[in-house]
Amino acid sequence: MSACKADRWYAVRTRSNFEKKVAEELKAKGVTCYLPCLRELRLWKDRRKEIEQPLFHGYVFARFADTGENRLRILKTIGVVHILGQSSQIEAIPDVEIASIRAMLQANVRCFVHPLLREGSKVRIRRGALKGVEGLLVRFKNGFRLVVSIELLSQAVAAEVDISDVEHIPANPVPRSLMRNIA
After folding, report:
1. Which element (helix H / strand E) includes 102?
2. Residue 23 CA to chain centroid, in angstroms?
3. What is the C-alpha to C-alpha distance for residues 10 and 33, in angstroms, rounded to an integer?
4. Got the DSSP string for 39-70?
5. CB 23, CB 33: distance < 8 Å
6. φ, ψ dihedrals at 163, nearest 5°
7. Residue whose C-alpha is closest to residue 26's, from 66, 92, 71, 57
8. CATH topology of domain 8-93
9. How many helices (H) and strands (E) are present in the chain, helices listed first?
């Protein structure tokens, strides 16, 4: 499967602990996929070990054009349960959500899984390692967190941010081309 304009991101549900195997199999089939992982320190009685754990347990993101042939190729992969969506329709994930998750994980800031929040202000980070990342701002104890969600999964990732680095995104943003005419 080659990348084209019709390619979109989809959440592929996997069997328990099959995320890495499904990602490998999809890549072998030529499917672009993304398995976001976090490094965790695991403690055993006799040792400590840092391991990579999938960020969203039971899910792999795959990018493909929504055709019957492509769906079948994905669904025939060992460990795949289904592609998320409503009834017989699969539901695409906006590119900005995947890009924001990638940016958070690549920025080497402390990230962790966070419950999806439906309330809060939509914000964008103005500077620093997370510059350009969009998400919801929530207050936590004495600080603030940026929550980037994958709404289709009902899950999110959060990172602590400095409130001075955040700008509000209006509900109906004015196109930049019109902003010049306003000023």
Report:
1. helix 95-106
2. 15
3. 9
4. EEEEE-SS-EEEEEEESSTTEEEEEE---HHH
5. yes
6. -60, -25
7. 71
8. Alpha-Beta Plaits (3.30.70)
9. 4, 15
Angle value at C-alpha 144, between 143 and 146, nearest 5 degrees: 155
pTM: 0.69
> Which residues, 6 or more positions from 164, have their beta carbon under 8 angstroms from its beta carbon?
none
Comparing CA positions, the residue from 40, 136, 147, 142 lying closest to residue 104 is 147
Please compute Rg for the chain using Cα positions: 18
Count of all residues that appear for the chain in the document: 183
Q: How far apart are CA 43 and CA 76, in angstroms?
A: 37
Residues 6+ apart with CB under 8 A from 23: 33, 35, 60
The predicted-structure confidence for 42-75, as pLDDT tens digits, reads as follows 888 888 888 889 999 999 999 999 999 999 999 9
Distance CA 160, CA 140 (A): 9
Question: Tell me: the pLDDT tens digits for 101-156?
Answer: 999 999 988 887 765 544 567 888 888 888 999 888 887 777 778 888 887 888 88
Q: Where do the domains of the chain lie?
A: 8-93, 95-168
- Helix or strand holding residue 121 (H, E): strand 121-125
